[in-house]
Amino acid sequence: MSGDHTAPISGGVVAGLDGRLRCPWPGAQPDYLAYHDDEWGRPLHDEIRLFEKLCLEGFQAGLSWLTILRKRDAFRRAFAGFDPPTVAAFGEDDVARLLADASIVRSRRKIESTVTNARALLAMDGTLHDLVWDRAPAPGPAPRVMADIPATTPESTTLAAELRSRGFRMVGPTTAYALMQACGVVNDHLARCFARDRPP
User: Fold this and answer.
1) Which of 8, 118, 136, 157 has the smallest count of CB within 10 Å of its CB?
2) Closest CA to 143 of 9, 8, 4
3) What is the pTM (predicted TM-score) of this model?
């Protein structure tokens, strides 16, 4: 799961102010609620948006996902909408520009990894979409409480290894599983969460 959703929370669904039952991790934060309700776990097939999510999951490492979510528009401006050919062409001047941009996470390692990942994506045979979606596990029972949701799976471990073999960086099994959750490759909305069975 993206970020620190599982950190302090192990319970089941909770009722929001609107009366809907939800996973507990968004709390009452409006931007987190919107992300949970309308985006997280919903099938995503657009190549650029998949690349964006992969990069943002890398930026999230060690930070709260809410921090990244609130900076997402700034990241999109800074990284040219995560257009892979544009990002792949970034050089040292661009890295310096990004390191000076207080509206994003200013980590040289994460910035350089994003550029490296754009170049790895362009060098791939096939698409990031196929690589990620081909690792979808067979559907299983819905998790009942947050403690039922793993941090990694055999499929995410395989995906991370395959991405690294193609030159991607900042893609361990936990990041790979967070990507799979965010893009709907797996559905980790809890049982009884209203968003679990929403049509795509």
Assistant:
1) 8
2) 9
3) 0.90
Strands (E), 18-95: 21-22
Give the contacts of 25 (CB within 8 A, at least 6 positions apart): 1, 5, 6, 9, 32, 36, 146
Domains of the chain: 47-182 (1.10.340.30)
How does 134-165 read in b/e, with b if 16+ C-beta sit within 10 Å? ebeeeeeeebeebeebbeebebbbebbebbee
- Are the beta carbons of 176 and 156 closer than 8 angstroms? yes
Q: What is the CA radius of gyration of the chain?
A: 17
Candidate list 25, 32, 35, 40, residue with the active-site label: 35
CB atoms within 10 A of CB 32: 19
Q: Which of 25, 32, 40, 65 is catalytic?
A: 65
Known active-site residue 57: yes
Give the span between the Cα atoms of 125 and 148, in whole angstroms. 36
